[in-house]
Amino acid sequence: LGNPHGILEIDADGEAWIVEVGQPWRNARAGLTDEMLAPGVEITASGGRSADRSENRMKAERVWIEGALYELYPGRD
Question: Which of 4, 21, 34, 56 pairs as cysteine with 17 (C-beta 3.0–4.6 A)?
Fold first, then answer.
């Protein structure tokens, strides 16, 4: 997970997706660590999908791991 944004490769029900999380400082502020986003960890992410619908890519604004919410962009709806 590095600059400018961390990139996660996700298997979502057999479909490959790219999920962009925050910059390292933003992840740390939200309480996310590299270990929490390691291969095999199950996450749920919400945010904005790429404008190019041919891409399975999204920018995460919120991430849930084991029921805990991590707000990358607090206050954003």
Answer: 56
Cβ atoms of 48 and 58 within 8 Å: the answer is yes
Pairing of strands 68-71, 15-20: unpaired
pTM of the model: 0.87
Give φ, ψ of 74 to 5 degrees. -55, 140
What digits encode the pLDDT tens for the residues 43-53?
999 999 999 99
How would you write 7-76 as a 3-class SS string?
EEEEEECCEEEEEECCCHHHHHHHCCCCHHHCCCCCEEEEEEECCCCCCCEEEEEEEEECCEEEECCCCC
Tokens of 55: 């891409």
- Residue 1 tokens read as 């997970």
- At 28, phi and psi to the nearest 5? -60, -40
